[in-house]
Amino acid sequence: MKKKKYVYFFGEGGKEMKALLGGKGANLSEMTKIGIPVPQGFTITTEVCNLYSKNNKEYPEGLDVEIEANMNKLEEKTGKKFGNKKNPLLVSVRSGAAVSMPGMMDTILNLGLNPDTVQGLIELTKNERFVLDSYRRFIQMFGNVVLGISSENFEKILEEVKEENKIKLDTELNIKALQKIVELYKAKVKEVTNEDFPEKPNIQLNMAINAVFDSWNNERAIAYRKLNDIPDNLGTAVNIQSMVFGNMGNDSGTGVAFTRNPSTGEKRFFGEYLMNAQGEDVVAGIRTPKEIEKLKKDMPPVYNQLVDVYKKLELHYKDMQDIEFTIEKGKLFLLQTRTGKRTAHAAVKVAVDMVDEGLITKQDAVLRVEPNQLDQLLHKTIDPKAKLEVIAKGLPASPGAAVGSVVFDAKKAHDLNEEGKKVILVRNETSPEDIEGMAAAQGILTARGGMTSHAAVVARGMGKCCIAGCEKIRINEKTKEFKIGDVVIKENDTITLNGNTGEVILGEVRLIDPELKGEFKTLMQWADSYRTLGVRTNADTPHDAKISVEFGAEGIGLCRTEHMFFQEDRIKAVREMILAEDIVGRKKALDKLLPMQKSDFIGIFKAMKGLPVTIRLLDPPLHEFLPQAKDDIKYLAHEMGVTEEKIEEKITALHEMNPMLGHRGCRLAITYPEIAEMQVKAIFEASCELVKQGIKVMPEVMIPLVGALKEFTILKKLAKNKADEIIKDYGVELDYKIGTMIEIPRACIIADQIAHEAEFFSFGTNDLTQMTFGFSRDDVGKFVPEYIEKGILEKDPFQVLDKEGVGSLVKMGVEKGRKARKDLKIGICGEHGGEPSSVEFCHKAKMNYVSCSPYRIPIARLAAAHAKLKEK
Amino acid sequence: MKKKKYVYFFGEGGKEMKALLGGKGANLSEMTKIGIPVPQGFTITTEVCNLYSKNNKEYPEGLDVEIEANMNKLEEKTGKKFGNKKNPLLVSVRSGAAVSMPGMMDTILNLGLNPDTVQGLIELTKNERFVLDSYRRFIQMFGNVVLGISSENFEKILEEVKEENKIKLDTELNIKALQKIVELYKAKVKEVTNEDFPEKPNIQLNMAINAVFDSWNNERAIAYRKLNDIPDNLGTAVNIQSMVFGNMGNDSGTGVAFTRNPSTGEKRFFGEYLMNAQGEDVVAGIRTPKEIEKLKKDMPPVYNQLVDVYKKLELHYKDMQDIEFTIEKGKLFLLQTRTGKRTAHAAVKVAVDMVDEGLITKQDAVLRVEPNQLDQLLHKTIDPKAKLEVIAKGLPASPGAAVGSVVFDAKKAHDLNEEGKKVILVRNETSPEDIEGMAAAQGILTARGGMTSHAAVVARGMGKCCIAGCEKIRINEKTKEFKIGDVVIKENDTITLNGNTGEVILGEVRLIDPELKGEFKTLMQWADSYRTLGVRTNADTPHDAKISVEFGAEGIGLCRTEHMFFQEDRIKAVREMILAEDIVGRKKALDKLLPMQKSDFIGIFKAMKGLPVTIRLLDPPLHEFLPQAKDDIKYLAHEMGVTEEKIEEKITALHEMNPMLGHRGCRLAITYPEIAEMQVKAIFEASCELVKQGIKVMPEVMIPLVGALKEFTILKKLAKNKADEIIKDYGVELDYKIGTMIEIPRACIIADQIAHEAEFFSFGTNDLTQMTFGFSRDDVGKFVPEYIEKGILEKDPFQVLDKEGVGSLVKMGVEKGRKARKDLKIGICGEHGGEPSSVEFCHKAKMNYVSCSPYRIPIARLAAAHAKLKEK
């Protein structure tokens, strides 16, 4: 058997070996291979890391021999000798995993320095200050990272010596001061560890390798991996590389650069550099780096070489690169190249540009952009340059950003908005009563409720920024203020919300408007050409419908009729209906609603231009339409001409312990068929009128919350009779469908029975998730964050579809449904319809479409394309 | 092909042919066959009924020929001729389905009478009054049943003639009056139908047969079938039988009898008769019938013959018979025999007696008693002789009966009970806070909540009468009264509850105590010898545990620890824990609870004598432990030494929109592990102390509401560590199990994963039903009754396990669970564990046991035996 290879000299590996060599190591090898100037070195594989972790910090046999051989090779290539006084080789020892974990693991520079090599190096460089500075940095880094001595110990010494010398900057330290620091550092090492600082380079190297492998399992790294879904068994590689120095004088320097602008995507070399400096100086921000263009003037040959290098790299990697370089005495070295992180804007532009440049295919371009990233393109965002005073953090329930004056009730929000004032609605939680206030507000902040609470769902539907479940805020509605710890925010104070992070910010912050560039449109067209899954929208108003079509919706998958009930002119009739003594009274009130509801549908149908529109019959429990506050009840009583007592009696009668599991959905239509009848009438009168005008419509009546077959058959019959009667009366031709929402576990179980009767299924995964988990989406804020922290749940199941549990029921529903009716049209209209991994699940489950809020349509379109392209 | 036979002459069929001949027809044939004197006749099959319904009221070919042939045979056997003036044959035409539907369908007597045959019969009987009375009855009955003339028309004529003649009773009508009535009746028929009353006997017969078949689909019959789960396609048979008359003079008579006492089961011929009367006279109650014993003196030979007959019948049918007989001029005829309905007492005694008599086997005896019937034996009942003023009807949520003074709050109930007063607790709905009041009350009446609402579940657990969801009552807690329409019941007024029917009765009614007779015990022992399914109980206190063992429980399947938290001495510590600022404060409060909880477990373990005890960790959301009423909050604030504001803040913080889907069950144990830890400590310290005393204990720790594997593994680890530590500290040997409740749909889906870790499953079918249907058991009263009425649901799924939906998930859970762990112990601890058809489901699903409230244990034991015996 061939002996296993644990160490790869740069050039022996390549970029395809990331898993074994880590990202950094693989790219250093790759660059070496294609002739990019890289400081020589070698990589110890990630496999060694795993064996080391597994075998109680024992290394595999033969590793030492391999390392020695590679050190020899390194000495040979560089012409230097490790530990040699005359011409000492110094190395860096760095971690590098397959996945980038910036700053999470440890690095040691300048390894190999000791009193001997320091002397040798001084003679060689004639630069005692530089060598001593490197030495004190090495002791500090090694002491901290390898020996585990808190860096404060060293910082303190440094500060003291600086004070003694009355200087402020490290660069001002003179040779004497540096010598003293080295002495004091070593004394401190002895004091803390009870041992002398190791002077033998080989011992330093071995200790450093151990430290890097150990750092894979330090707390910071474990936490980072958990947070970013990185498996623990990836392991890190160790890169040992000869040092080059950007701080060897004015013909030296260092810099970082992107091959294109990572913020805009513009095709222009973009970066910064500092002369006579080390990499950390660029990052630290003590000296201001120069724009990369300036290098053209500072060192023309190096600049030209750098331009050649970046072009070569981009052509080779076929993606925008993020590089680090050092110039040592006029000589250019590349220290790193990797795929550059970029904004959504840049991602889209780079992908489309690279297709135009012939670098990548359209499929590549589509796959280059993460669907979730598009969110950035669709909402206002906080100016990244702004200084923020973050006072609390809640759930980032609906993306975007908003600035406004704080108000605590919906009516006030509405009134102030009418006066042209921008407001932020702050509530403990919102209810359908607050809809108008939410619509009037710039953004919504709630103290309770999760990612799919009422506030969150409605806000996302409106494309409006919302922070939900900000449990730290304590609202006092009487005094009109809220507290966060000691901070008191009064009504009319200005705050800013960042819906992308959940941050609540004091005062006004500059916002940046969304831009829909040409490249974005192009990319979406490419995505559409690949995807097979349809994308519809959840829209309840002509306005939303119009936006949806602009965003590319292929129909409405969920039109919630109840949202129409809350508008000021309608709610009165709705309440009249609820308060009616009998069916006669109810029908009278419903007759008032009919023309309003009908005109809504006319508007929506027109906006959808003949695309299918799935309309859900009334879903929420009736109590949601009655007021809760004493004053509102009083007002309503006056308005309705009834006693307050009567309204309170009705509220009591309608009260439910668990309204989510109560008298709603088709249960309402069964007990009050007259409501469903009015809605069906509105749908079909609207449809027929438009058809008469020559406008195409495609209505689909959706019966919600079906759990027993007969619920569906009774209501289907009701709807069909009414519809056919109206169509006949109008004397038009009109195709329509009657289907159901599958949102109750029992419906999945008897999906075959239901499919015999229903023409389409739409999975309501919000409710299905609630019932499958037994989680109330309004209340999960109380424990789900802790569940995610403890790893009980990977993700909030209301955001990301739970494939294992809820997904099993969905699959069961799809399979049973299609078994009974081969051409059953199946979609999803829960919040998951706009979440990329859930969209992929729907694609795999062979659904016909997903439906999501208007502002997530492009995300769903792109995710659907990804799902299809990834199949191959 | 042999021609299908549509008509059976009595004697041609037999008792096994009930489906075809109906119960009555089959038994008349059977009796004829075994030589019991029965008026001759024949039966048209139920098959004809179905064909008639299906084919638009067309009869199958050849039926007329068969009927004619059988009429000829009847004439031959009786020596009379249908329509003949000299010796006319009169017949009755009666319906008779396979299942008894008393009074639901129609009957015509004396068919064949017309002016000719009336004359002939008068000559033959020399009793003109009798013949004319029969004639007017026939016209009335035929007119009503066959011609559809409202009986008021005839009643009015009868009353008028009686008034003219100044008499009160029908029997006082003289010949002239009867003649006039006949004339007026016929005129009325002509007036209403525009046709003469049909005089031809054959036409009468055909019309009567049509009418009986039509009556199968009259509204009354359809409603009765729906109510009693009788399939519509059973059809009714038609029995045509020669008339015999008990009203032909003092040597004639009629009676009904049971072969044993149907109320007590005593082996004594039991019945009543009237001389010179028709069957309807016995039922009508105008004349008081005599006890059957008297017949011995009135007509010794007939009595002796009757005794022979009943003995023969009982020996033949091997069950208690309910018979009808007529004596015509000294000759005995049996008109009907059927299995006699009986009380639970009688059912048990008859079954056991018949085994002793060698009539039936023990298996037969066990199968003879319906499990649900036993409920009667286990609770107080309303004296059946009492006159009742029923003022409202709610759901019969917990059986039994109770008398007491009305109180509206738990504290008052408790206080009055202490004073020795019997009270009925009346609440809109109960909450765990009311527990002590419920325990103190004789019975509970709630305005809201279904069969498995808090009130219902707790009351059943306590074996206490409860009427829930009595939606008609309107409670006013301020004025301390409730209204039902105009009736006002004030505090301290006495009412009586009938938990078996749901009736609320004004005033005090006499109650009958439950009796557990020797035969009952015997029967239960036989049942135990057949069943393979275990029966455990749901018990939370030593007292309940003791009762359960007496009722035959083989362990505790569900011990709800939270019920222990509500007792006055504990609730304070519980509240202290909830109000604590941090874990230190919580632990301090928990330390106070520990000894109390431990002593509970000691009591329960002792009562269970080494039988397994499954203890569920804290399940309900914490807010249930805090008070709601302003006054109680004030009191608590004072008690705890905190501000009211603080308590209200906590209540607000704990508030949930849908507590059933909220922060409860294992979710509490995950976020507050210290609570679970205290409970585990209490369980194992109690166990170990008893083991040290030489007392056997078998604790099983049950983790509720698990939906994700890690919830279970985290808590299992916590419990196991704590348990093993305590066992080690005590230095004892103790076996225990750690398992989980399967009550969330997702748990059924991932049951295989869970079973790898859990040692037992207990299906919590209450919650599972809630989540599978999306029904809140507290709120279903709002629509489930209508669902059942409309046939959307067959039964309330909280009472009878929904085999199709919930059952599918249970089966999935059992199969997946056993796949992962072959010997996984599986039980059910929802309310369904005491419902016979659900018990049968559990048996078939191969569970190890069911667990039910103490007072349902015998029912579960018997149902389990039935399930096993029915397998064969």
Brief digest:
In chain A, helix 13 (344-356) packs across helix 18. With 872 residues, chain A is α/β, with parallel strands linked by helices.
What does this structure look like?
Two copies of one chain form a homodimer. By secondary structure, chain A is of the alpha/beta class. Helix content of chain A is about 45%, strand content about 15%. Chain A is built from 34 helices and 33 strands. An eight-stranded mixed beta sheet of chain A has the order 14-24-23-16-17-18-19-15. An eight-stranded parallel β-barrel of chain A has the order 26-27-28-29-30-31-32-33, surrounded by eight helices. In chain A, helix 19 (about 540-550) links the parallel strand 26 and strand 27 (about 555-560). In chain A, helix 6 (about 150-165) packs antiparallel against helix 7. The model of chain A has no long low-confidence stretch (mean pLDDT about 90). At the A-B interface, helix 25, helix 27, helix 28, helix 30 and helix 32 of A face helix 25, helix 27, helix 28, helix 30 and helix 32 of B.
The SS-based structural class of chain A is alpha/beta
Order of strands across the widest beta sheet of chain A? 14-24-23-16-17-18-19-15
Shape of chain A: elongated
Count of alpha and pi helical runs of chain A: 34
How would you describe this structure in keywords?
eight-stranded parallel barrel; 872 residues; alpha/beta; 34 helices; eight-stranded mixed beta sheet
Which helices and strands appear, and what pairs or packs with what?
The structure is a homodimer of 872-residue chains.
Chain A: E1 7-9, H1 18-33, E2 41-44, H2 46-54, H3 63-78, E3 81-82, E4 88-89, E5 91-97, E6 107-111, H4 115-125, H5 128-145, H6 151-164, H7 175-193, H8 201-215, H9 219-227, E7 236-242, E8 253-258, E9 270-275, H10 279-284, E10 290-291, H11 295-298, H12 300-317, E11 321-328, E12 331-339, H13 344-356, H14 362-368, E13 381-382, E14 390-393, E15 395-398, E16 401-407, H15 410-418, E17 423-427, H16 435-440, E18 443-446, H17 454-462, E19 465-468, E20 474-476, E21 481-484, E22 487-490, E23 494-498, E24 503-506, E25 511-512, H18 518-530, E26 534-538, H19 542-551, E27 556-560, H20 561-565, H21 568-579, H22 583-608, E28 612-616, H23 630-640, H24 644-654, H25 666-671, H26 673-692, E29 698-703, H27 709-730, E30 737-742, H28 745-749, H29 751-757, E31 760-763, H30 765-773, H31 784-789, H32 806-820, E32 825-828, H33 836-844, E33 849-852, H34 857-871
Parallel strand pairs in A: 3-4, 16-17, 17-18, 18-19, 26-27, 26-33, 27-28, 28-29, 29-30, 30-31, 31-32, 32-33
Antiparallel strand pairs in A: 1-2, 2-7, 5-6, 5-7, 8-9, 8-11, 9-10, 11-12, 13-25, 14-24, 15-19, 16-23, 20-21, 21-22, 23-24
